[in-house]
Specification:
This protein is α/β, with parallel strands linked by helices and 385 residues long. The protein has helices at 14-24, 39-51, 64-76, 87-92, 94-102, 127-130, 145-159, 216-248, 275-287, 305-312, 332-341, 364-371; strands spanning 7-13, 29-32, 57-60, 81-85, 108-113, 138-141, 168-173, 181-187, 256-259, 266-270, 292-297, 299-301, 317-322, 349-354. 37% of the residues lie in helices and 19% in strands.
């Protein structure tokens, strides 16, 4: 399925990449309510629809709650749908996020990650989307603008697969990626993604009831099916990742990425934009004789348990860097890594570090000093240059 179309390199922001991906993925309904730093996504889409560049209905709503309700309704009626939000907007959608999952509507949403207030903070951390991890949405965390574009396109192939039928968030750090321009390769994906052909849809000619009262005899079965769909999604992700590579020539990870991990004694684990600084730290530590490596998780839901164990089972120490925290316990990624690795016969030592909340800068030196034992506290408060 190799693409023979002309490719173009454009220097655009992460938000523009998200909007362009939605257009090229043949989205037919966009419902939107603006919120910083995701507003430019829907601004770009509204321009495309208004000028006729994008053949879609653009629905202006009064809140993020309504935006998700419109996406669910349009998806149930048989349309490919898209929206974008951030922070408190995502929190306002919370009730409908559960509905999108249980109704098995494959909505795709861009999330420009931003801290949750008060006090009001518009800068990046992952608390907004991580706090929605139990809603049943698939979650992907991007580390550059090329990944934003590629992942949104692939997310539709995964979400709409009849073995999955789950909604998906494509997450990226606010301002760090959302407003930063980078060169990305735009490949015509017309032959990679077809028009949406729903497995089920509401039909006036054949009326049926969806989403009505669900008694105990059936509700638990529904939730089990959602969990089993997440397990199947990992297999579908691997297939779509391979097919996209064959089509575009770009190997864009959907589950995880490893960097110099083959012979590592010490592994760092990250998600999102801070991973680029972690790669620099790996190279610097190697120069100093420390066999360091990096495992970047792209998929947080479904959580790739088996893949993580395979990659980290032979290292001696693991340092997990969370750009979010669960008050009263630890960083969420750290907690889940510990649970996964605990079953190993000789599990590595696992250390958690909380970094970068509210947009606090995270430099390569933070990762270096943590691995070298110079940052032995859970909370990394200082900015180290």
């Amino acid at each position: 399925m190799k693409s023979n179309t002309t490719r173009a390199v454009r220097i655009i922001t992460g938000n523009q990449a998200a909007a362009l991906a939605a257009k090229n993925a043949k989205v037919r309904v966009v419902a939107a309510y603006p919120i910083t730093p995701a507003t430019p996504v829907v601004e770009e889409l509204s321009k495309m629809v208004e000028t006729g560049e994008m053949k879609a209905h653009f629905i202006l709503v009064e809140s993020e709650h309504s935006a998700m309700a419109a996406c669910i309704g349009a998806s149930a009626a048989g349309s490919r749908t898209f929206t974008a939000t951030s922070s408190h907007g995502l929190a306002y959608m919370h009730e409908l996020l559960h509905y999108a999952t249980n109704a098995r509507t494959p909505v795709v949403m861009a999330v420009a990650n931003r801290a949750i207030g008060p006090g009001w903070n518009i800068w990046a951390d992952l608390s907004d989307s991580i706090s929605q991890r139990d809603t049943g949405w698939m979650q992907f965390y991007c580390s550059d603008n090329q990944e934003i574009y590629d992942t949104i396109i692939m997310a539709y192939r995964i979400a709409e697969h009849r073995d999955v039928l789950l909604p998906a968030m494509v997450c990226y750090d606010g301002f760090v990626l959302s407003h930063t321009a980078m060169p990305i390769e735009i490949t015509d994906v017309n032959d990679f993604i077809d028009e949406y052909h729903p497995v089920w849809r509401l039909d006036f000619d054949e009326p049926s009831t969806h989403g009505n009262i669900l008694p105990p005899d059936y509700f638990m079965e529904l939730r089990r099916e959602v969990c089993e769909a997440h397990e199947r999604a990992l297999k579908v992700m691997k297939e779509v990742e391979r097919e996209f590579y064959e089509y575009s020539g770009r190997l864009t990870p959907l589950i995880l990425e490893e960097y110099r991990l083959e012979d590592a004694d010490v592994a760092m684990v990250t998600m999102g934009a801070i991973s680029s600084e972690a790669k620099i730290a790996v190279d610097e530590l190697r120069k100093r004789g420390v066999k360091a490596g990096l495992l970047r998780l792209k998929a947080f839901r479904p959580f790739p348990k088996q893949e993580v164990v395979e990659k980290l089972g032979s290292v001696e120490k693991v340092y997990v860097f969370d750009r979010s925290v669960s008050p009263g316990f630890d960083g969420q990624l750290f907690s889940e890594l510990k649970a996964v690795l605990w079953d190993l016969r000789s599990p590595p030592e696992v250390y958690g570090r909380i970094v970068g909340l509210g947009g606090r800068d995270v430099t390569s030196r933070v990762f270096e000093k943590a691995v070298l034992g110079e940052l032995d506290k859970k909370w990394v408060m200082e900015v180290i240059y």
